[in-house]
């Protein structure tokens, strides 16, 4: 089950998991199954037809096809953006692999963005998203 983060708790949990102080203006969606919290997605930095998507989970059970479809429909259909970006540390191979499996395309590297680590930038255009076709 997906739910909108009405009280900021999902956004705060994602920030804590990633060591981020704040996302700034953002919207978040929580993921739960059988009344157990599985993770959350924060949509932030909305500008120029792009929104940044940050995912943190505590269980692989979050990734049902229906959940993934809805998590991509929110920015592409509801927010009407043309692209989604996501940024991960270069040493987080699990996140890099997950982004690739979701259909994101590696677009570049920000050197020492997460000192001492680089950041890998991924993007997905709306017409590339297989989840909402």
What does this molecule look like?
With 133 residues, the protein is of the alpha+beta class. Helix content is 26%, strand content 43%. The protein is built from 3 helices and 7 strands. It has helices at residues 9-18, 65-78, 93-102; strands at residues 2-4, 26-33, 36-47, 50-57, 83-89, 105-114, 117-125. It has a 7-stranded mixed beta sheet with strand order 1-2-3-4-5-7-6, with helices on both faces. The longest helix has 14 residues, at 65-78. It is globular. The model has no long low-confidence stretch (mean pLDDT 95).
Short description:
This protein has 133 residues and is α+β, with helices and mostly antiparallel strands. It has helices at 9-18, 65-78, 93-102, and strands spanning 2-4, 26-33, 36-47, 50-57, 83-89, 105-114, 117-125. The chain is globular, with a radius of gyration of 14 Å.
